[in-house]
Each structure stands twice: as C-alpha cells, then as structure tokens.
Amino acid sequence: MSFYNKNWVYQEYKELYVDITGADLTDAEDQFLKKYFDPYNDDGGKKIYYMAVFRLKRGWHQFLVYFLIAKNLKKDFNKIEGLETLVVLHKHFAKKMLFNAIKAYCKITD
User: Fold this and answer.
1) At a CB cut-off of 8 Å and minimum separation 6, what does 24 contact?
2) What pTM, to 2 d.p., does this model score?
3) String of DSSP letters for 80-100
4) Residue ranges of domains in the chain
5) What pLDDT digit, counting tens, does each position of 16-71 carry?
6) Which positions ≥6 away from 17 have C-beta within 8 Å?
7) 38 Cβ neighbours under 8 A, 6+ residues apart
8) Is the dihedral of CA 75, 81, 87, 90 positive or negative?
9) Using N-to-C axis directions, what is the helix angle for 62-79 and 90-109, rounded to 10°?
10) 1 to each of 4, 13, 98, how far by Cα in Å?
C-alpha cells in the first residue's frame, strides 16, 4: 500500500476528485484509479498520456488532443460498473492529463 502513497500521478487525480466533489473516493473508485494510473502498467492512463504527448509532437491542435483524451477516458470509465462519478468528471481528468502532456511536450522541445 505504501507504493500508492508514493505514486504522484494517483495522488494528483485523487486530490482533483476530492477538490471537485468534496467527498472521498469510494473503494471501487479508489481501486480503479490505483490500477488505471499505475505508472508501471502499460495500459490505461499511461497509454492515453503518451498518446497525447505523441500527438502534440506531431502538431495536433490542443483541442483535438483534449477531445481524444476525454473520449478515451469516458470509454474506459464506462467499462466498470459503479464509476458514475468518474464518468461525470472525465472532462476534468482529461484537462489535467492534457496540461501534464503539454508540460512534457515543452520539456521535450527545449
């Protein structure tokens, strides 16, 4: 369990959820976010994040990248039953992921 306390990506999205909703994560949402934003997993959030950085490098407009991130997040959140709150907040998660991808893109181009 201490691994997830060191996982800054999971912590960022957990804090974003708490800031927006004002409530704590349910057990199902907590477990899903831990697996989804695991940096050692080649699936889920890591795949979408690197897709966004790649598309920014290729000159895609930020709005199109945001749209694809939001679409993929909503699709992944809809797969699991009981994550209705995450489905509603998928646009906030997409905006956060886009800003992180832009920061990575700016570091790459410097």
Assistant:
1) 18
2) 0.84
3) STT-HHHHHTHHHHHHHHHHH
4) 2-109
5) 989 998 888 888 888 888 888 887 777 788 899 899 999 999 999 999 999 999 99
6) 25, 29, 33, 85, 86, 89
7) 7, 10, 44, 45, 46
8) negative
9) 130
10) 6, 17, 28
